[in-house]
Write a structure and sequence with these properties.
Low-confidence stretches: none
Distance between the termini: 34 Å
Number of strands: 0
CATH architecture: Orthogonal Bundle
CATH topology: Urease accessory protein UreF
Strand content: under 5%
Radius of gyration: 17 Å
Largest sheet: none
Structural class: mainly alpha
Order of helices and strands: HHHHHHHHHHHH
Amino acid sequence: MNDPTLMLRMLQFADSAFPIGSFAFSDGLEAAVAEGLVRDAATLACYTDEIVRRTATTDAVAALHAASACRCNDYPAVCKADGALLRTKLNDEARTMQRRTGRKLTELAVALFDNPLLQRWHADVKAERTPGCCPVAQGVLFAVCGLSDDALFATLIYGAANRVLNAALRCVRVSHIDTQRILTELATGIAALYDEASDMELDEMHAFSPQLDLLAALHEKGTGRMFMN
């Protein structure tokens, strides 16, 4: 990451303003607030930490495998990672988020970069031959752009935490200082999570967070909503 071009690419793809629609999702935070489980900075920090850990052991594992497969020209392995990741998403809203943002990222990627692998991936996602989960699409894009695995992992973790914290500013009594403090503290444990995720096989992905899935089920039937999940 000493190359400023690569650094700029990573910042571009990590930007919350990157137009793939992720701002419309809260990773279940809205339902957690409605149920009184998240109500201040302390409970928000715990919730964000849980989202980050779940992202590391599911989304990041699939993305890292997809990126590695791209570098080895093993396209079937990319699709295998894509299908495996979708199966870890137990609720409909999570699956919708994965596929909708993944499709938008794929459309942007082929518009920005002229690459045969990206074009093949885009064709398969468009034809619904593969789900097109966003983290896997990120893995493909990062591999094509020559970005490293640790850059990919950091971008995924930052994206997950940032979605929750940005949503919190709309529905929790916290300040920008609170959310930035939470993000700063989360960064101290990222290296250990990266070591764990980078050693995991696809069949080792795990996301035992039943409370989050129950909140998603409640949110699906909610009537007053700002976010799509």
